[in-house]
Design goal:
Layout: H1 13-64, E1 78-79, H2 82-86, E2 104-108, E3 114-120, E4 123-129
Antiparallel strand pairs: 1-2, 2-3, 3-4
Length: about 130
């Protein structure tokens, strides 16, 4: 019986450390790249929520026959009305997906256009709806 002794060995500790270092470097490079996708997805989700808010307010006005002037006209806009939520046009007061934002604001201009903004310390922040396309 001839038994062949194999000279094959596993990886050395140095080789394993080098591979782990390369994986760490690639991970640190790719993490900010994927973070941008998360922020972009949150922005798109908030834009979709803004459209839902506008549709709920329009349905509210069609059903109640109120004018926009009786509801939300102010310089800084208003937070989403509990009346719209109470009457089940929205399931709950929507909250932004973007972690840097706390609430939405609704403003209705003199032409009865519904505008949705982020809340910025009680005032109007970035406009979400309608999205101005340059």
């Amino acid at each position: 019986m001839n038994k062949k002794i194999s000279n094959e060995r596993g990886y050395t500790l140095l080789e394993l450390i080098i591979v782990l270092a390369i994986i760490g470097i690639l991970t640190s490079i790719s993490t900010p790249f994927f973070g941008k996708f998360k922020e972009s997805a949150a922005q798109k989700a908030d834009e979709a929520t803004a459209v839902t808010i506008v549709n709920a307010i329009r349905l509210y006005y069609m059903d109640t026959q109120e004018t926009f002037n009786e509801f939300l006209i102010s310089e800084n806009g208003e937070k989403i009305s509990n009346e719209v939520v109470y009457r089940e046009y929205l399931e709950e007061v929507p909250k932004p997906q973007k972690t840097s934002e706390k609430a939405f604001r609704v403003k209705i201009d003199k032409n009865e256009n519904i505008l949705i903004y982020y809340d910025k310390n009680g005032g109007l922040g970035e406009q979400l709806y309608p999205k101005n396309i340059p």
